[in-house]
Specification:
The complex is a heterodimer of chains A (about 775) and B (about 475). Chain A is of the alpha+beta class and about 775 residues long. Chain A is built from 22 helices and 22 strands. Classes of the chains: A alpha+beta (about 775), B mainly alpha (about 475). At the A-B interface, helix 4, helix 5, helix 6, helix 7 and strand 15 of A face helix 14, helix 16, helix 18, helix 21 and helix 23 of B.
């Protein structure tokens, strides 16, 4: 079927092109007939693919394609690329993802490495999309950053949003993101299209404020230029340019709507969709986007209580209209079906709702993306209605899929559903662990509008566990966060209503709680000459109850200062009048961590030292011990990851692995870091401000595979990095690791590697020991 | 001797005088036997009194008549060379004909030669005083163009300052009372507020005089009218109907000027028509206009042809040809560069514009032009001492992720030195962030930055020392 359609297309193309072809003696510009040889060659690539597969098609392009390009003039080259592009992205063949991704990749690589600038630029957003669709966010970041650098280097185009002029807050009712303007003119609207891709990737990496600001720049550019062209309707290209700019503006609205969804602000999401929905394109190109936005707006109207269940009739009509548009994809229609199902289920019309969701879940032809969404909706509604059978394996599967897909922010919704599931199942300890993980993610991405509800969830779990005091504390914090959030009134009222619901009564008061955990168990530090020795240990209370005990440290000349508000115990060695043994009583709130920060002055760091640490809980639980030791300072080295530690695996929470980088040179630089694990392990690295740096799904130190993402690549070379600021000599970072199949008998080694002048070098090795 | 020269001049004028009264038909009948008739016929075609503008006819007629001894034809032949009528444009080739015309007593030739001296066109060196003397002499001998041009340049500060008012009065008189189109054109400029003339800003009067000049047959004024109308069309806030009306008028004026062989008008017309389909005459090929002028080697036409093939507003990228754009830029570069005594190469503004675009095309490649990093580097090397864009390309090549010309530490240090110099020359052009990115990406150490700085201190980017290691 595909083949016959393809042949028909080619035949039509040739007929059309030959019909307009005529001999011209005079030089001419524009409207030239298409080169049939170029079209045929591109079509042949599809035939090779269909008969022999993608590898053969790529070989064909590398041989015949390149030979043709070399001998051809500008127009023939263009037509060859154009036809390939069309076959990959616009014609029926685009529905084959292997073909589409393969051809996009080939054009992109040819453009970038052989120098076909136009097609390279054209393919950047597409290549980005190919990687994103495959969950290769690290590779997507590399594509975006290469282009960002290229544009920055041209001296005329400014693309780093943080360097733009700040005009005013972007929105009156949502402080934070700012309206910015580039200092220089961004002359090419294609750069602005790329800007929206940058915004989408930033959002995927959780950098939603940047995403909003980038979208606003693209949208402003679009609106300004639409106006300019609208005032000059007689220009040859005005109509086409207005269409392109409208598409740009619409793409900006789409990303913007996704931001509001991520932040849990449906009121603002509705606003974004409604803006798009108002625009009814004249031609078919954008029509399906507009209709889809209208569907989303209708659904949100129901969710927010502005519309009743009769909106389903509108959605059915819109879906029928959507079906008639030429650019619609099967997934678009199914997405609308899911919106309809949601309304059915929320309005008590269960049967048709489940029918739709189950129909999509069981459809073997459905895309992985769609299956994911349908499963998520299924879990959400099952948990909501208390039908918990089979939910957990489905949820865990979804969580794995989300992690493999590399979209960290997807995990947030799943944690929320999972936590609700665990509460409904009466597994409060597990619910607590998941809720804490949810809160950690919300903090990592600064999703503050969602914090009040997540804290309320935490309060609920604690209340169910009979921890009234800590539940009230969490509830109070939820209220404080809401007051400080500065979100639009309507959203604030909705959230206030949620967190004002009375907390449930205790159901399990005597459940055994996981003990407070001291980590790492051993840590070794070799400072740089002239810099102090430092060690960082953590005491974590993963339970819902307060825990207390005594922390004892034994070492030379110890003195300590406890900052309860910051959750830190500062310990100094070798102080005058210091004690050889120090006992610090500590009480840890539920879910909290106290960091034990040990410091030995540079002057006293020139000899090996040891500090023994022990934690004795007051409730008579087992004592935990740890040792911190230092060795003689390292001379002649400008930078080092100065510590290596041994951790004891703990199933109750993700152990943070802290590291310290010391550097002598006060020369500001971004240094590439990676972690290579001894067995497949998901590694997440966070900067000292707890901002995500990277996710390496396999822990192989490569970032181009599925599930990988790079959130910080300051030197734009496709590798994650940390900024070593000129003002400091030290920088901390933190790792979270999760072995892909869980630790069994074999300990896990983690090599911290740094790229120095193009070569990776191991700077430190951590070990996570299997708990016996 | 002076008396003899005057006698020649007067006889020259008198000899041609009879033909002025003849009809076109009479002129055509006499042209084969009477060089002055042939010359007059060619002049009438040249000035648009007989249409169409026939390049070949004008050139061949002036050539034949000049060979037969017509002083006016010598002047006409000079103009053919100056204005590329059937020959490549060349002021150098025009001047000997003007010179000969003067020697033969032709006053228009004297005016043309005077203007050449004023601008330094086709003469060994610019000499405004010599030029003004020629204009004055032509005027003193009663040639209206001599009087008008002398007054014009006096107003522009080249003549006797005390004669400013008299010059203005003369121009006004010629424009208002004697129907002198060129004088009206100069008055237009005066009221446009021309800075050299220390003119007044009276837009209505300016427009009135430009219009008068254009209607009087002055092709430069026609071109100016075209420019003014198009400017109205592009003025922000102009309604669609008014825009279109202005464009239509502008195009009409451009066409009139083009009919008199005004090259810039032809190029402007081409540009407007390239975007406004509705203003094209049936079968009119705006692109052919551009190619015709570029083929003559006109720098402006080469620039426009290069521009449109590099980026064409209103067209798709499919229509572009970067190879052709690069060829045009290379020609402009060759016309705009010269080697200094110390071996370095220098460029004028046009050349620099071409250079920047050319480096981009070679650096990026595409749309028919293969990437050519070695040529890009060659250009960057040559002009890096005077152009921060050239420096930027040199830096970009040396620090490129694919390292097309080498990947040693020395490449990175030198590349960084180039970018550092760009930053020093133009902080907005090369941000500190980009230097940070490049340093970090290539692991450039403090010591290596110091080496880059030392290279700059030793004036390594001097246009002579090789940038590549």
């Amino acid at each position: 079927m595909k083949a016959s359609f393809a042949h028909l297309w080619a035949a039509l193309a040739v007929v059309t092109f030959s019909a307009v072809s005529h001999a011209e003696e005079e030089p001419s510009f524009g409207d030239k007939p298409s080169n049939s040889e170029s079209v045929e060659l591109a079509r042949s690539t599809w035939t090779v693919y269909r008969d022999e597969g993608m590898d053969a098609a790529l070989r064909f392009l590398d041989t015949d394609g390149r030979a043709y390009i070399r001998k051809s003039d500008a127009l023939a080259r263009y037509d060859f690329f154009s036809m390939l592009n069309s076959l990959a992205l616009f014609s029926k063949e685009r529905e084959d993802p292997v073909w589409s991704a393969g051809v996009v990749g080939w054009i992109y690589r040819y453009g970038r490495f052989d120098g076909e600038n136009y097609w390279y630029r054209n393919m950047v957003s597409e290549m980005y999309q190919v990687h994103v669709s495959a969950g290769r966010y690290g590779a997507a970041r590399e594509v975006i950053n290469y282009e960002l650098t290229r544009l920055s280097m041209d001296g005329r185009t400014e693309v780093e949003i943080s360097r733009f002029k700040v005009l005013r807050p972007l929105m009156e009712d949502f402080p934070g993101p700012m309206l910015r303007r580039p200092h220089t003119e961004i002359v090419n609207w294609r750069n602005m299209d790329f800007f929206v891709s940058v915004a989408a990737l930033d959002l995927a990496e959780g950098k939603w404020a940047r995403a909003l600001e980038e979208c606003s720049v693209a949208q402003d550019h679009a609106v300004g230029n639409i106006r300019w062209h609208a005032e000059r309707p007689t220009l040859q290209d005005s109509e086409a340019v207005i269409d392109q700019l409208t598409a740009l503006w619409r793409k900006g609205c789409d990303v913007e709507a996704e931001v509001w969804d991520f932040l849990g602000l449906p009121e603002l999401e509705l606003r974004s969709h409604s803006e798009v929905a108002q625009y009814r394109a004249k031609k078919g190109w954008d029509q399906h986007y507009v209709l889809f936005a209208e569907c989303q707006a209708a659904h949100l109207g129901f969710v927010l209580g502005n519309k009743d269940a009769s909106v389903v009739a509108d959605l059915n009509a819109l879906q029928a209209e959507l079906k008639g548009t030429k650019r619609v994809l099967p997934d678009d229609l199914k997405n609308v079906s899911l919106l309809i199902a949601d309304i059915h289920l929320l309005s008590g019309n269960a049967e048709p709702g489940w029918q739709i969701i189950n129909g999509i879940r069981k459809d073997p032809a459905v895309s992985a993306n769609m299956k994911f969404r349908a499963d998520r909706e299924w879990c959400r509604h099952r948990v909501r209605t208390g039908a918990l059978e089979e939910v957990e394996p489905t949820l865990l599967n979804l969580l794995e899929t989300a992690r493999a897909g590399g979209i960290k922010r997807e995990e947030i919704d799943l944690y929320r559903i999972y936590s609700d599931f665990l509460i409904a199942s009466g597994r409060y300890e597990d619910a607590l662990r998941i809720q804490n993980e949810l809160l950690r993610l919300l903090r990592a991405f600064n999703v503050y509008p969602r914090m009040p509800e997540a804290l309320y969830g935490l309060a609920k779990i604690r209340a169910l566990m009979g921890q009234k005091l800590s539940a009230d504390e969490a509830l109070a914090e939820a209220g404080e966060k809401l007051a400080a959030a500065g979100i639009p009134k309507a959203a604030a009222a909705r959230i206030r209503a949620t967190i004002s619901a009375p907390l449930p009564a205790a159901e399990k008061e005597d459940e055994a709680k996981p003990p407070i955990d001291l980590q790492p168990r051993r840590s070794m530090m070799i400072p740089l000459a002239g810099l102090p020795s430092r060690g960082l240990f953590s005491l974590t209370n993963p339970s819902a109850a307060y825990g207390s005990g005594k922390l004892t440290l034994a070492g030379p000349g110890l003195s300590a200062r406890h900052d309860a508000d910051a959750g830190q115990l500062f310990v100094q060695l070798g102080t005058t009048g210091g004690q050889p043994r120090l006992v610090q009583p500590l009480t840890l709130a539920p879910g909290s961590t106290v960091l034990v920060d040990i410091l030995s002055d540079a002057a006293k760091s020139d000899a090996a030292q040891t500090v023994e640490i022990s934690w004795q809980p007051n409730d008579g639980g087992a004592e935990q011990k740890a040792v911190w030791s230092t060795d003689n300072p390292e001379a002649g080295v400008s930078m080092a990851v100065t510590d290596a530690s041994e951790y004891l695996d703990n199933p109750f929470y993700l152990i943070p692995i802290y590291h310290l980088i010391q550097y002598q040179d006060d020369f500001e630089q971004a240094v590439d870091f990676r972690v290579v694990a001894s067995q497949p392990t998901r590694v997440e690295m966070y900067d000292q401000g707890e901002q995500l740096v990277f996710v390496d799904a396999e822990g192989d130190g490569m970032f181009a595979s599925e599930g990988d993402s790079i959130s910080q690549d300051l030197n734009r070379n496709g590798e994650p990095d940390l900024r070593l600021q000129a003002s400091g000599k030290e920088r901390r970072f933190m790792l979270f690791v999760r072995p892909v199949v869980g630790l069994k008998d074999k300990d896990l080694d983690l090599e911290i590697q740094v790229k120095i002048q193009g070569k990776w070098q191991t700077y430190s090795t951590d070990r996570i020991v299997v708990a016996k | 001797m002076k008396a003899l020269l005057i006698l020649f001049l007067v006889s020259g004028c008198l000899g041609a005088a009879g033909v002025f009264e003849m009809s076109e038909k009479e002129l055509r009948e006499k042209a084969d036997t009477d060089p002055e008739a042939m010359t007059e016929l060619a002049w009438r075609v040249y000035s648009g009194k007989i249409t169409p503008f026939d390049h070949k006819f004008i050139f061949e007629s002036f050539t034949k008549a000049a060979e037969a001894g017509s002083a006016r034809a010598e002047t006409g032949l000079g103009l053919c060379h100056k204005e590329a009528i059937h020959v490549k444009p060349s002021s150098e080739n025009a001047v000997p004909h003007f010179q000969k015309a003067v020697e033969m007593g032709n006053l228009q030739g004297m005016v043309e030669l005077g203007i050449c001296w004023i601008y330094g066109d086709g003469v060994p060196e610019r000499n405004p005083a010599k030029g003004m003397a020629l204009l004055k002499r032509a005027g003193d001998m009663g040639h209206p163009n001599g009087k008008v041009q002398y007054a014009n340049y006096t107003l522009k500060g080249l003549g006797d300052e005390s004669q400013r008012d008299a010059s203005l009065a003369l121009l006004k008189d010629f424009a208002d009372n004697k129907g002198h189109a060129r004088a009206a054109f100069f008055m237009g400029h005066y009221y446009r507020g021309n800075e050299m003339m220390r003119g007044e800003k009276k837009p209505e009067l300016a427009r009135k005089y430009f219009l008068k000049a254009a209607e009087g047959g002055d092709k430069v004024a026609m071109y100016q009218m075209g420019l003014d109308e198009i400017a109205i069309a592009w003025k922000p806030g102009t309604g669609a109907a008014k825009q279109m009306e202005a464009k239509r008028k502008g195009v009409l004026w451009y066409r009139k000027a083009m009919a008199l062989n005004h090259m810039e008008a032809k190029l402007k017309l081409s540009k407007v028509l390239s975007r406004e389909k509705s203003l094209r005459l049936e079968g009119e090929n705006w692109y052919a206009y551009l190619v015709e002028e570029a083929d003559k080697g006109y720098l402006l036409a080469l620039k426009d042809l290069g521009d449109i093939n590099y980026h064409a507003p209103g067209y798709t990228f499919r229509d572009l040809d970067w190879k052709l754009a690069a060829e045009c830029r290379e020609k402009i570069l060759a016309m705009s560069t010269r080697q200094l005594e110390d071996g370095r190469w220098t460029l004028n503004d046009e050349g620099h514009h071409a250079l920047v675009n050319l480096m981009e095309i070679y650096f990026e490649g595409g749309l028919g032009q293969d990437r050519d990093i070695p040529r890009c580097m060659e250009l960057a090397q040559r002009y890096a001492y005077m152009s921060f864009e050239a420096l930027r390309y040199a830096g970009s090549i040396l620090l490129h992720p694919e390292a097309p010309l080498g990947k040693t530490r020395e490449h990175f240090i030198r590349g960084y030195a180039c970018l550092l110099q760009v930053r020093r020359l133009s902080p907005t052009y090369m941000s500190e962030d980009m230097l940070f990115v490049m340093r970090s990406r290539h692991g450039i150490t403090r010591e290596e930055v110091a080496k880059a700085e030392a290279l700059l201190a030793r004036r390594f980017l001097n246009g002579l020392t090789p940038i590549l290691p």
